[in-house]
Write a structure and sequence with these properties.
Radius of gyration of chain A: 17 Å
Oligomer: homodimer
Distance between the termini of chain A: 51 Å
Strand content of chain A: 5-15%
Number of domains of chain A: 1
CATH class of chain A: Alpha Beta
Structural class of chain A: alpha/beta
Helix content of chain A: 25-40%
Largest interface: A-B, 43 and 43 residues
Shape of chain A: globular
CATH superfamily of chain A: HUPs
Chain lengths: ~230, ~230
């Protein structure tokens, strides 16, 4: 029987590729998404519509309002920057977001007996978020095994899988295509139009477009007309 | 100016004592509570009513439905055991709960510039939860400093304070009383009556009553008549 895995699934390019990889590695993916007050809820709508087609056995959506925490362009009143990817941690960084997401994944994993957790973080073509780095992931994994029944009772060991961490965006796209991912059904923009069209200018759009260009491909997502 | 500290505050005996200790150590407490679908919501109501009187500068209540995750007597349909404190991890253990709570605390702390986080875990008179042990707390702290901007930019270091971890329940109560805590306004029961009266039989009530008895004191909380 295939092993269950939790997959953090936003409906974006990276997490959708990550789900395809989990499946290709023989896991049964249990997708978890978060409705946390993000301004780009188009992504979540796509995640809900496509989870099953993308191979999820189940799809859990956890709701909470991270706007109460604030501190980010993705949840607050700060504008999303559109002038290119810089070297500092940008205002789109959401404080402790991956830690909150992975914690819920850990709880669900413990309940359903899934000790493998996939997260599509990437430390190469990325925005410089601290919680996308390998040393952070290793520390979370260590903590996870001390936090839980499985770790104490020796009935399993949690593994955080980051299959995209060392890949360029172009490599991620090629990998996903080889596994049958339909990128027309993924969304990455931080600040989409009401009809869901991507802005083409935020860090996330720029990294995505650069990835498709480097892979010699056309991005099938829809972008705002200019 | 006093430093800000985040205090995980459930409205129970331990977390209320913890807030008093944070204040006594010179911190300005920012209390965070969680409405997560717990069956003992009396505790949360008390937390909301008393946070300010107990010394909190602000009180943030984060809502999410952990019943979707399940796996615990505190959130699910499993009955709360009333036959005494055992040696195994009991069914009242909520998978990854402290990790989820601390993660939200970390996010809020990063936003408001509070690098000190207080949590009233106790590894002596406790129910045997894996996420109350010192080795877990140390691993969370390490992860927290890799997860965040402050850790990367060197602008602060998160510290998880666990002032109750080595104390007996009686010592916690004596400490709280010396700091002016009014325990009549705290609640600990896992399965209270609709009017808020504590059951007196769940692990949490047993540990609390034992604590007051060992301290040679009467618990001022209200218990169900038998």
């Amino acid at each position: 029987m295939p092993k269950k895995a939790i997959v953090l699934y936003s409906g974006g390019l990276d997490s959708t590729t990550c789900m395809a990889i989990a499946r290709a590695e023989g896991f049964k993916p249990y997708a978890i998404s978060f409705s946390y007050g993000q301004r780009h809820s188009v992504e979540l709508d796509l995640a809900k519509a496509n989870a099953s087609a993308m191979g999820a056995e189940e799809h859990l959506v956890v709701d909470f309002d991270y706007r109460k925490i604030g501190g980010s362009a993705l949840t607050g009143d700060i504008a999303v920057p559109k002038d290119g990817v810089g070297n500092d941690i940008p205002v789109t960084y959401v404080p402790a977001r991956n830690t909150v997401f992975l914690s819920f994944a850990l709880g669900w994993g413990e309940v359903i007996g899934a000790h493998d957790i996939f997260i599509g973080v990437n430390a190469l073509d990325y925005s410089g978020y601290p919680d996308c780095r390998p040393e952070y992931i290793a520390a979370f994994e260590k903590m996870a095994n001390l936090a839980t029944r499985a770790g104490v009772e020796g009935t399993g060991r949690f593994l955080i899988h980051t299959p995209l961490i060392d890949l360029t965006k172009a490599e991620i796209i090629r990998k996903g295509l080889s596994l049958g991912v339909n990128y027309a059904r993924t969304h990455s923009c931080y600040d989409p139009a009401p009809d869901g069209a991507a802005c083409g200018l935020c860090d996330s759009c720029r990294l995505r477009l650069k990835g498709f260009a480097e892979a010699g491909l056309q991005d099938p997502a829809s972008y705002m007309k200019r």
